[in-house]
Design goal:
This protein is α/β, with parallel strands linked by helices. The protein contains 17 helices and 16 strands. Helices cover 49% and strands 16% of the residues. The strands form three sheets. Strands 1, 3, 4, 5, 6, 7, 8 and 9 form an eight-stranded parallel sheet that branches. Strands 13-11-10-14-15-16 form a six-stranded parallel sheet, sandwiched between helices.
Length: 424
């Protein structure tokens, strides 16, 4: 058994490549710091994650919402209140066994305990409650939380968030929300995905599927659409796919090439949860011509997507971690978002003016703001180059905090073990 064990929830390998980037950043940075460490991912899509898992020290354990909310939480509570059954429960539940044997649970939910997302609140609680019940400390990796004005969210947040060992806030707005709630277990940080390292093989890997000559010659504008944003825009009578298609046509008319990529993708299904592939295909079907347009029609890894985004001259992001990748690659970016989580990250670069909400999305407004970005491209690029090293350093700080906590907890556990007699 490895010297250190960690359980992770809230991220993934397949599907949402932002979740994948957070998970892979943790595995990369913590393996570097701890060496002999095993990870267990409590997975919402275990078969898909297992098929794409390339890490020998990462084990995949099923934990879809029903399994997590009912089975794992029930067994973790039984473990707490029925000590005689603990050995049996650990032998029957891989999830409880992983949690009990881990120094920390890393919660990598990107946005949790937030007003307006009350339908996810039960999952937010269920994600950390089993660890609390088996007495495994919880470390919330950099994420957005708050605001806490809704009474239900406020009650849940006041009940459970103080029980977390450490909460890394992902920006100023989140930190302010958390401080106003009275939380003291806070560390100001930056998204873990800023720490994602590239292998250097991404170009060759991508070239197996895409013609990279597309990037030679005319300027390339990257677009990462979002099925989440599509639902929000269409719910108020808009036509998100049509508006993005109009924007693509305008870019083509200006002599630009356009890359459309899904930063959240699940192959082999038309379901839109964590899946922008159907949306990208719909946008392509709305175009009068696909000349000078490259639509990525497959699931790529988070590193491959970051490489492609880095090849763009300008980028328009609706997926949060597509924005993180474009900022990490110092590509001037316009953001169409739906919560404070976008703006607070852009604030780290003094670029918050380059985000607007989905409620403001119209073809004219999008065209105008993109033209403004294009005009200010050099100034924006200079700010990215100036602030990026500090943002990456803030991202890496949480890896240092986790490693320090893991070593300390492991040492405390070892000290509490009864010493073996000389005759044993």
């Amino acid at each position: 058994m490895s010297a250190y064990r960690l359980t992770i929830i809230g991220s993934a390998i397949a599907g949402n490549k932002g979740a994948s980037a957070m998970l892979e950043s943790a595995v990369q940075t913590l393996t570097e710091r701890l060496g002999d460490v095993e990870f267990t991912l409590l997975s919402m899509y275990p078969a898909e994650d297992a098929a794409q898992n390339r890490f020998p020290n990462v084990a995949i354990v099923p934990a879809n919402p029903r399994q997590l909310g009912v089975t794992i939480n029930t067994l973790a509570l039984a473990y707490r209140v029925l000590p005689p059954l603990r050995r049996l429960i650990r032998s029957r539940s891989r999830a409880v066994e992983a949690l009990v044997g881990s120094q920390l649970l890393l919660d990598q939910g990107g946005i949790t305990f937030t007003d307006g997302r009350e339908k996810f609140l039960l999952y937010n609680v269920a994600s950390i409650l089993p660890a609390l019940n088996v007495r495994t400390p919880v470390f919330k990796c950099a994420q957005a939380i708050g605001p806490f004005q809704n009474p239900v969210n406020r009650f849940a947040s006041r009940t459970f968030l103080p029980k977390v060992r450490t909460i890394v806030t992902r920006g100023r707005i989140t930190h302010d929300h958390a401080e106003r709630l009275g939380l003291a277990n806070l560390v100001a940080g930056a998204d873990y995905a800023f720490s994602l390292g590239l292998s250097g093989h991404e170009r060759d890997e991508v070239a197996e599927h895409l013609d990279l000559a597309f990037f030679d010659g005319a300027p390339v504008v990257g677009i990462s659409p979002s099925a989440v944003l599509q639902k929000k825009v269409d719910a108020r009578g808009g036509d998100y796919a049509g508006q993005i298609a109009i924007f693509v046509e305008q870019l083509r008319s200006e002599g630009k090439r356009v890359l459309v990529l899904p930063h959240s993708a699940r192959s082999g299904t038309d379901k839109t949860h964590n899946n922008d592939l159907p949306l990208c295909r719909e946008i392509r079907s709305r175009l009068t011509s696909t000349d000078d347009v490259l639509v990525v029609d497959r699931e790529l890894s988070s590193q491959q997507l970051r490489y492609l985004i880095g090849r763009c001259d300008l980028f328009v992001a609706s997926r949060f971690h597509a924005m993180v990748s474009s900022l990490a690659m110092a590509v001037p970016t316009l953001v169409i978002g739906w919560s404070h989580k976008y703006r607070e990250v852009l604030e780290m670069f003094d670029l918050e003016e380059w985000a607007f909400g989905h409620d403001m999305l119209t073809p004219d407004h999008l065209r105008k703001r993109f033209a403004d970005l294009e005009e200010c491209r050099d100034k924006v690029k200079a700010k990215l180059d100036e602030y990026l090293p500090a943002v990456k350093a803030r991202s890496l700080e949480q890896a240092d905090l986790i490693a320090e906590a893991v070593r300390g907890i492991a040492a405390e556990t070892a000290d509490r073990r009864p010493a073996r007699s000389a005759a044993s």
